[in-house]
Hints:
single chain; mainly alpha; 3-stranded mixed sheet; 16 helices; binds iron/sulfur cluster
Amino acid sequence: MTNDSMTRSEFLRQGSGLAVSAVLGGATACRACAATANETKPSAQSPGGCGEVEDGARGFAVRPYQLLCMICSLAETSAPADPKLKAIFEAVRQDPDRPITLSSNAGGVYVYQHPGPQDDTPEGSEFNRKRDLDILQRMNWAPGTTLPARTALNAVLKTIPSAAGICGYSAVTSDAWRGCPKADSGDYEKGAAKGIQAIIPPRTDEEMAGEKETSLRALHSATRVTIRPHILLCAVCQYGGGTRPPLKVDNLPELLDLILHKNPDILITLVQGADWMMCAPCPSRVAKLNACVNVLGSGGLSNEKRDLDMLQKLGLHYGTTMKARELYRLIFEKIPSTQEICKRENPSPSVWWDGCGESNVQQGNQNYEKGRRELMEAMEKLA
Ligand code: SF4
Ligand code: SF4
């Protein structure tokens, strides 16, 4: 078939079809050999392939229902038996933050992301379409949304605890709506109850304890500390709430302790991302991406906005280096409350929602205000 004789949807379908078959069928695609596919759907590439894994080459497309079937298949086993589901499972386990595109056969203006019917299950076209749309609607995402796999799976687990009403219905109105034979088996609910850790293992206690020790040693011998901006505020919230060293999950109390009792003029450089020196032992840190994956995997996004909001408020930029007490003096002068930096009015589910954002809607964090008063007083007394 030439391009001249293809319909628009057929043409687009070939792009996403390549992506699905690449991950599910084991085809390969590095950046060079995927150049043709890139012309139609740049984000949809195979994981792995010829061994060259690059940022732009690690994403792939799935049907939303395939995420549910993968969870369902984990009810009694630790990995899916079905080859397609197993390929998705292994790709996510190998690289949990690789982007996945949730393609569905939605019509109307969403036709551009049609994957086609090739991965439909045998229950019929309307059922397959409705099931995918039911899932996307619960998650509040548009067809064709691309997200880190960790976020997509966490959102599925949070918004869809049961297959009822999605994979099968309480009343079978006709043969076209009989649903999946496993809908009432309880398997999906059992798989979902195992949680995200059944697919994406958490950081181990040993690894985090080792990172705590090494990063603290680095902090105590440093002449210059690197830190992402907004967690300088989190340190104040912790201080106001009474947290003192040692803290297992970050090095912020130890940083304040160093400033207050050993070296008030230690240099602080503001850097991007979940920088190792402060964040090394955090259960939500992904070392290879220097990223934080709290809040269903998407918390790093809201945190990055906080970093940038704070830089704007202070008139600083990434790379700024200041003496610790001068930096805190500026912070306390310009930021009397966390509300302007931390507030989020996006309702959950949203990649912008987080607990701190919600708790700052009515007023700023009271621990910050207390910690700010106490630290201003303590820093005034320093020689
Ligand atoms: S309110 Fe803001 S500054 Fe305080 S802990 Fe939460 S995110 Fe950090
Ligand atoms: S959640 Fe993110 S910013 Fe906070 S300590 Fe963990 S890695 Fe650092």
